[in-house]
Amino acid sequence: MVENRCQLNSSYHEQGYFVIRDYFNAAEISALRKVILKFHEAWKKDNEQFYQEEAFNSSLITGSQYLAYDDRVKLFNFISSKKIMNIVDSVMAANPAFMNTQLFFNPVNPLQKDFWHRDCQYDYDVEDQKQVIQETQVVHFRIPLFDELGMELVPGTHKRWDNEEEFDVRQEEKGRVSSEGLSTGKKIKLAAGDLLVFSADMIHRGIYGLDRLALDMLVFDSTGDYVDYVDDDCLPETSMLEKIEDPRLFMNSIDLKAEG
To answer: Name one GO molecular function term (predicted).
Structure first.
């Protein structure tokens, strides 16, 4: 596992991502899917117009709004399971902290197109984006619940700025649009049970189609200034902590919140 961990760390830091095929068995995926579908069906009913018109993802899955106490505990235990934490510890510095969960699905509108982006572009202007990608990291851990077309990533862009083509497409400059193909893009098809780990700030896009339903866990380096993104309701209640085998991911977030 130590050699494996070094390889994963190297792949992540050089390329900005890696995939582990068949990392979760059928029983693990089935149990996770059961909880996630409860959330998804309740969320769709509550957000029907948004879902029908433009949605392609939801968030705050671990919160109390749509899942019962026991289902939340199951989800917290999955997120902090030994399998997940082994990978978290492979790519992140000391004291990784839980940020959020997201669920990605196909938009209802068949004309809606996938699009290239860096997560940081929604919070920072261009000059600040250039700085952010050189600093602390936020990492996506994506688990597809069904076989899907997967993701398209631009390897290495977690550490380098866009070339001219990438920038014009991502920012929709010079008549380009963000749904266009990129010559530097790499498609990664995903199957249920795979684990894709990638930097939030690399250039990427999800690919719509098939039975797309993927759970993303976002984890951040505690030294980064990201605690404001953590929703209190999405952290375990005090009574849940003793039911979680390894709660340190959540405890780090709780501690950062207390310090803030």
So the answer is: 2-oxoglutarate-dependent dioxygenase activity
How does DSSP classify residue 103? E
- Candidates 160, 156, 180; CA nearest to 170 is 180
Averaged over successive runs of 10 residues, the pLDDT of the chain (260 residues) comes to 75 95 97 98 97 96 98 98 95 90 96 95 93 88 98 97 98 96 98 97 96 97 89 97 95 91
Q: What is the pLDDT of residue 223?
A: 85
Separation CA 124–CA 144 (nearest Å): 29
Which pLDDT does position 93 carry in this prediction?
A: 75
pLDDT score recorded for residue 1: 46
pLDDT at 2: 46
Give how far Cα 255 sits from Cα of 15, 16, 62, Å: 31, 28, 18
**Which CATH number characterizes residue 178's domain?**
2.60.120.620
Number of structural domains in the chain: 1
User: Which residue, 94, 98, 103, is CA-closest to 66?
Assistant: 103
Nearest 5°: phi and psi at 142? Answer: -105, 130
Q: Could you say which DSSP state residue 239 is in?
A: H
Collapsed DSSP state (helix, strand, coil) of residue 129: helix
Q: Which helix (H) or strand (E) holds 255?
A: helix 248-259
In the chain, the N- to C-terminal Cα span, in Å, equals: 36
Q: Is 134 exposed, middle or buried (0-12, 13-18, 19+ CB in 10 A)?
A: exposed
Please choose, from the candidates 97, 147, 38, the residue with its C-alpha nearest in 3D space to the C-alpha of residue 250: 97
CA distance 1 to 214: 26
